[in-house]
Write a structure and sequence with these properties.
The longest helix is centred in the N-terminal third of the chain and has 17 residues. By secondary structure, the chain is mainly α. It contains 4 helices and 2 strands. Strand 1 and strand 2 form a beta hairpin. It starts with a helix and ends in a 7-residue tail after the last helix.
Length: 85
């Protein structure tokens, strides 16, 4: 890990003031963009972009593993008649 930090530092040291300022602003944007609330869970929990992406990826993995519920099963579970849809 220290080697990575040293490499990054050595690259930043050689940047001009303008380039360093641009890099800093870009890093700030990324930090705040990924922490901005972009969605809410079904229970009302606020989700950041990272959390939202993480939940989507979990859902995709569950579907890939066959861990999903059909619309017909969901209707039965919730007490709706699938044929009425």
């Amino acid at each position: 890990m220290q080697q990575i930090v040293d490499n990054i530092y050595s690259e930043i040291v050689h940047l001009s003031d303008t380039e360093r300022d641009m890099l800093y602003k870009r890093m700030q944007q990324e930090y705040y963009i990924n922490r901005e609330i972009v969605a809410y869970s079904s229970s009302g929990e606020a989700l950041t972009r990272d959390q939202y992406r993480q939940r989507i990826n979990i859902g995709i993995e569950q579907c890939d593993k066959g861990q999903s519920t059909s619309l017909e099963d969901l209707c039965t579970e919730l007490g709706y008649n699938y044929g009425d849809l």
